[in-house]
Amino acid sequence: MLGHVTVFAQSKTVIGVVTDESKQTVPGVSVSVKGSKTTTQTDADGRFKIQALATDQLVFNYVGYAAQAVTVGTRSTVNVVLKSSVTGLSDVVVVGYGTTKRADLTGAVGSVNMKDLEQAPVKSFDQALAGRVAGVQVSTSDGQPGATANIVIRGAGSISQDNSPLYVIDGFPSEDANANSINPSDIESIDVLKDASATAIYGARGSNGVVLITTKRGKAGKPQLSYNAYYGTQKSPEKIPVMNAFEFVKYVKELNPVFADSVYLKNGVTINDYQNVSSLDMQDYIFQNGQNQNHDIALRGGNDKTTYSISGNYNNQKGIVKYSGFKRYQGRFVLDQTVTDKLKAGVNVNYAYSETFGTPISATNFYASSVLLYSVWGYRPAAAISGRDQNTDLLDSFYDPTNELANNQDYRVNPLISLENQKTMYKTTTMVANGYAEYAFTPKLKLRVAAGITNANTETNIFNNALTQSGSKWNSSGPNGTYATSPAFNWLNDNTLTYKNTFNKDHNLTVLAGYSAQRSKSSYRSIYASQITNESLGIDALDLVPAANTVVNSRSSVWTLQSFLGRLNYDFKGKYLLTASFRADGSSKFAPGKRWGYFPSASAGWRFSQESFLKEATWLSDGKLRIGYGESGNNRVGDFAYLPQLNLGNTQYWYSFNGKPVAIGSVITASGNYDLQWETNTQTNIGLDLSFFKNRLGLTADVYKRVTNDLLLNAQLPYASGVQSGTGFKNIGSLENRGLEITLNSTNIQTKNFRWTSNFNISFNKNKILELTEGQNSLLAGSGTFFNTTYTSLSPYISVKGRSVGEMYGLIFDGVYQYADFDKMPNGTFLLKPNVTTNGSTRTSIQPGDIKYKDLNGDLVVNNNDYTIIGRGLPIHTGGFSNNFSYKNWDLGVFLQWSYGNNIINANRYVFEGGIVTNPNLNQYASFQNRWTPGNQNNDLFRAGGMAAANYSSRVVEDGSYLRLKTVQLGYNFANKMLKSIGLSKLRLNASAQNLLTVTGYTGLDPEASSRPSNLTPGFDYGTYPQSFTVTFGLNATF
């Protein structure tokens, strides 16, 4: 008789340590037994313990690293070294209302390498996106402390409305994320949804792309205390050379001889006497070396039931312009609790308080009181000499006592003293609190209910005493001040039900359905007072001013949004992938009957690398083809744009009957439009993901076509409408963006002690207007107070049907009139020859040395009919290139970014290279020394006073292309064995430099900054605060 023997497989305890390539332990790594529910995480020391069979495979997953699977075998100890993910196919990627593996993606999603973010100190997350993700363009209006960036994904999808993306922070969407309220060290991941098949799940607000930010949470294991700090210095920008005293007086003599003789050359003083006068350059006194310090502290830990994260941040930046700076105090608390086997809940609370102080550098109007750099460049280098050995010191004088009549001009007031006395402070408080509860009815069916609130307020305090330009005795307002507050409150409720199942081992299905509701209310209240008599009280004296000298404003606005959404994900063996979504949004911003919009999407993927005919292709690690189509919307209009609106007041709109008191009148400010509806964005995307040579080389390429219909534009209305502006919102026109995005990742060298990886991305975008208002072929932009009062009726930008948005518009510069262009008259004067074109001035007033333009229509008269396109504000392509090296405990990172093919209007040259205002008190750039004179008859720069009538022209349109060495960082990681003796698990010292080198043909301070960064007016530089060269030293310590 044979005995029966039954063999039971016995599990055993497997322990191990997980480290990275620099031999640092990695806490929080997910360790699971493949094909089972058994899972754990590494603790603060990177250690783990798990039950497994000898035949089991342990799978190790962590964001930013390639997943690894290791067979247990006979071992009881399994140590694993994680490698940074190059292609990222196994990365977990955050998508709308969920996560997925990158290998399963069917839409276009870009991600920021968080390791790069950790190693390059940045104040806010928007700075981390610049050049890091293909298709994402980041620009700054200036480099002033506290300034945030403008982010555009895949080109401008709207002509006149906001093109910034939707920000979703820990699942809660916001159209204004306030980047300064989020500590970059708290961020776990940043993912960017770019095509409509990915963004349609956010419906009405997804047309401009979606930036998904996930913050760090606690992880099971013993408490882990980390401290990160850095301190940096910022170099003051390179000076733009300006004229010295001698050069300036010589220029004034040519410009206005009578003025020069009466002010600078009286009492026998000659021009040569100014060669011995010391010259004042205000750039030497306004600019300084800035400082920046940052401190982060965090405590994270927990157990199988409860995890927590407590973190805090302090950032203090001293600007490169005196009396400017930024401070931030921030804290975050996160708690996750497993209540039962079926119920999980958690809260996430973030508080931030920031202060931005100092005179605004860039502004939207011409006057030097608002544009600091113009009073700096234009300030006269020396006072008039009243005797050959006497000179007034302008540095210590608020105004120039030698030229009293000119002291009421902006450029006469000492900008340093004005800057010191103007008190400007913006205080911003932001509180965000959200919570969730997740209940698993079954392992396959889960309900998630989430709710959150955002409470924010910005308080403005501005006071200008008598020693400021705005408050001086030459300004009609006198000492003045402003107090304003802008509170905002937002609540959101999201409810989603998710079903996830696998059928017959090969069919994977995930279905999501949800309902969302959101409400936002914002207010603005301000008081402005002029002629404040008690200056010592500053802003606290506003209530002491008579009512006639005060202006009070108050307004409030509210909008609501209700949404239904659904999504289906299906894959067969991970080879054939399908995603479909649908969202319906109802918005209060539109009239009843027009409030609901419907936004579908569908995408598919084919992992052809898993087909049998490619099994032998060992060079191909992974390959996937993606195609997607979707629709999304844009509701970025005013909260009451569809309603007719009146403005009441007794200042502009009033009438007095028979001597009786003034009666308040009203004016129609908006006509309303009950047919107003969503801008709809339809997008088609085809993508290819490839990975070669055991994932050492990765390629992602996407081509897309994006069309926006029913554009929300301010259209011209009939005069009979009575609307003050003569315009009103309508859905008119359409816009197209076509593009190509390429991302390359590679591991160039991999040895035991040395590793070199690279990341390259490049993005091409071509923008074209398909349709405008019926009968309209172009749209002008930039008139009014856009630039200078002399240019009020002119527009430097045009958007033409069939061409790109925001092209530069003006006359073509054609050199300088020479003597050969004139007939010399018997009295010695010169008269322009009849066959020579004028420059916009009368033929009899044009003189040798005056500016000259091309006559495009051949009528011998230059005027508006000769305006043409003279430049493009949008680049042909942008990109970034990073290289990371590690050798034993050392690491080095180098990052470059660029923009190519865009132009910049260097409007500074209109004022300081010839002087459109022909002001004899306004200094000029040193470059204007090479102007035309009878003895220097060049064809590049016109004579003093020879700029003629105000015109925009190609003379100041420059190539804005640049290549910038954005970041270089060097770090050293101390060995674990040495650190344990002093109670540390990790210690890294680092040094970094930012904005080291910029290769560009642009002559302004910074080709990356633009003072008018709207869709219709890109690339306009007018007194812009530059980004600075920064050197930073820091440490990262974990206890």
Q: DSSP strand (E) fraction?
A: over 45%
Discrete helix count: 10
State the distance separating the first and last CA atoms: 65 Å
Structural class: mainly beta
Q: Helical residue percent?
A: under 10%
Report the biggest beta sheet as strand number plus sense, adding barrel if it closes.
22 strands, antiparallel, barrel
Q: Shape, please?
A: globular
Radius of gyration: 32 Å
**Low-confidence runs (pLDDT<50, min 5 residues)?**
1-8
What average pLDDT do the residues reach?
Answer: 85
Number of strands: 53
Could you please describe the fold and organization of this structure?
The protein has 1039 residues and is mostly beta strands. Among the domains are: 12-81, Carboxypeptidase-like, regulatory domain (Immunoglobulin-like), CATH 2.60.40.1120; 245-278 and 380-410, no CATH class; 643-675, no CATH class; 789-873 and 904-959, no CATH class. Helices cover 6% and strands 46% of the residues. Helix 4 (245-255) crosses helix 5. The radius of gyration is 32 Å and the shape is globular. The model is unreliable at 1-8 (pLDDT under 50).
Features:
five-stranded mixed beta sheet, 22-stranded antiparallel beta barrel, 6% helix, mainly beta, 1039 residues, globular, Immunoglobulin-like, 46% strand
